Amino acid sequence: MNKVRFGIIGVGNMGSAHARTLLDGKVPRAVLTAVCDINPDKLKPFPTVKQFADSRALIRSGEVDAVLVATPHYDHTTIGMDALQQGLHVIVEKPISVHVADCERLIAAYKKRPKKSQLFGAMFNQRTDPHYRRTRDLIQAGELGAIKRVVWIITNWFRSEAYYKSGGWRATWRGEGGGVLLNQCPHNLDLLQWLCGMPNKVRAFCHLGKYHDIEVEDDVTAYFEYPNGATGVFITTTGEAPGTNRLEITGDRGKIVLENSRVTWIRTEVPVSEFCRTTKGLFSAPPVWNVEIPVRDHGGQHTEILTNFTNAVLDGTPLLAPAVEGIHSVALANAMLYSSFTGKTVELPLDGRAYERHLKKLIAKSRYKKPEVQTVVADLSSSWGKS
User: Fold this and answer.
1) Mean pLDDT over residues 91-118, rounded?
2) CATH code reported for the domain at 130-298+329-373
3) Is a pLDDT exceeding 50 seen at residue 387?
4) In 3D, which of 31, 86, 92, 43 has the Cα closest to residue 61?
5) Cα separations (Å) of 330 from 9, 29, 320?
6) What's the confidence (pLDDT) of residue 159?
7) Does residue 378 register a pLDDT over 60?
8) Residue 256 · residue 249 · CB < 8 Å
9) For the chain, percent of residues with pLDDT exceeding 90
């Protein structure tokens, strides 16, 4: 094999963007050979490739080596499992599933895959952002010392009423399984655990339809506790403008701040714990160095993930975003929602089956009437927040 033949299942906003990326030749050694959507109108922009109305037919067509699943969230699990069981490479849009129990089912299908060479990736494109990559390198190298606190204010995910009316599945328990935590913030929650690890306790307050005519959360404030005693705060919404994207990670050797496309490291000359024990000053603080971390910005993101996935298939290159790691961001989102609904602190790892039962109750009890769906042409150029 010298090229990877991709099929895209679901050519809505993101799926069609991925299709254009492949058709425009932006991913070396990758070619789009098939698309699938239950809405025939969405297939019309792609007359040069095979078209399918049923994902099972595309998966069994022999036209593709890999599928990119970009359907509404619940279908990620069933379609992903089917493709894996049929021996195809699979890359799935975020989140990999709506809830932890489905993540476990999808990951189990991968572990039982018929071909051990099969790859399973996720579209966590923000892992390619050099700001986060440099920050992770510093943390992994121990330069920041033991993490004490993380605070992420990520409120630049503003969405209008027109956005929520653009799809019948959007912002419903039955169609999407959540709101800002399941649609926009899987990127941030993935990065949070990728950088700092998973907390072991979560207490959250999720406001449902605070700023929009929706039944799911559009405003969230959460508090985390980590096994080493560190704490965290995570704040997000789709109802504020102008928004903020500020990530602050504090450790025993200072803090790193990511904001306005800059990485700033305020490093203490000695570990804070050591200074605290040894200083004779009553009000003194450890001296610091202000370090500007040089980062060359890029516009890769989705294209880079597809390129990496293609290289992994053809050359064995390690995946930047293995899909099995996608369960962590889903667990964080589920834990925040579960905590808010129960009014209690939730311990991780989450009981996925308990949350699944809770979600099914929300679906069964829902009396929400979706406003009339409006068909619009989406401009995705500003749809994902930058550091």
Assistant:
1) 97
2) 3.30.360.10
3) no
4) 86
5) 21, 32, 18
6) 97
7) no
8) yes
9) 90
Q: Which tokens go with 64?
A: 């593709």
261 φ, ψ (degrees, to nearest 5): 60, 30
Count of CB atoms situated within 10 Å of the CB of 291: 15
Q: What is the DSSP string of 170-211?
A: TT-TTTTS-SHHHHTTHHHHHHHHHHH---SEEEEEEEETSS
For residue 340 the two structure tokens come to 């808010």
Structure tokens at 261: 């496309």
Instruction: Tell me what the pLDDT averaged over the chain comes to.
Output: 94
CATH topology of domain 4-126+300-322: Rossmann fold (3.40.50)
11-25 in b/e burial notation, b at 16+ Cβ within 10 A? Answer: bbbbbbbbbebbeee
Query: Has this prediction a pTM greater than 0.90?
Result: yes
Sequence ranges of the domains in the chain: 4-126+300-322, 130-298+329-373
The residue count for the chain: 387
Phi, then psi, of 67 in degrees rounded to 5: -120, 145
Is-contact 257 292, C-beta < 8 A? no
Tell me which amino acid residue 367 is: R
Residue 382's pLDDT band, with cuts at 50, 70 and 90, is low
Express each pLDDT in 316-362 by its tens digit.
999 999 999 999 999 999 999 999 999 999 999 999 999 999 999 99
From 271, 264, 312, 318, select the one nearest 291 (Cα to Cα): 264
Q: What span, in angstroms and rounded, lies between the C-alpha atoms of 21 and 67? A: 15
Is the backbone peptide bond immediately before 130 cis, with ω within 30 degrees of 0? no
pLDDT digits (tens, 9 = 90+) for 2-33: 999 999 999 999 999 999 999 999 999 999 99
Residues 6+ apart with CB under 8 A from 68: 6, 7, 8, 9, 15, 18, 91, 92, 93, 123, 306
